Amino acid sequence: MHINKQLTINRKPEVLKRLGLAKSTLHDRINQHLLPPPIALGARAVGFLQHEIDAVLAAMAAGKSNDEIKSLVLALVAQRKLAA
Fold it and tell me: How far apart are CA 76 and CA 84, in angstroms?
């Protein structure tokens, strides 16, 4: 396995602050595939991959449509499986 990015994990409070979202909005966007879901860190802990959140923020800043962002999110999640 070779991953050319350093993986940085952000916990939910940090992601909420970066995005300026409420918890319910974060979960709605995950369910709508507008944000990548978190990864399991343990039995009761999850975190978000920073590069995935950065990619979605960049797409939003570039004015990408929701459909384009959904495609991006699905591609990011698919890349997780390839990296394993």
Answer: 13
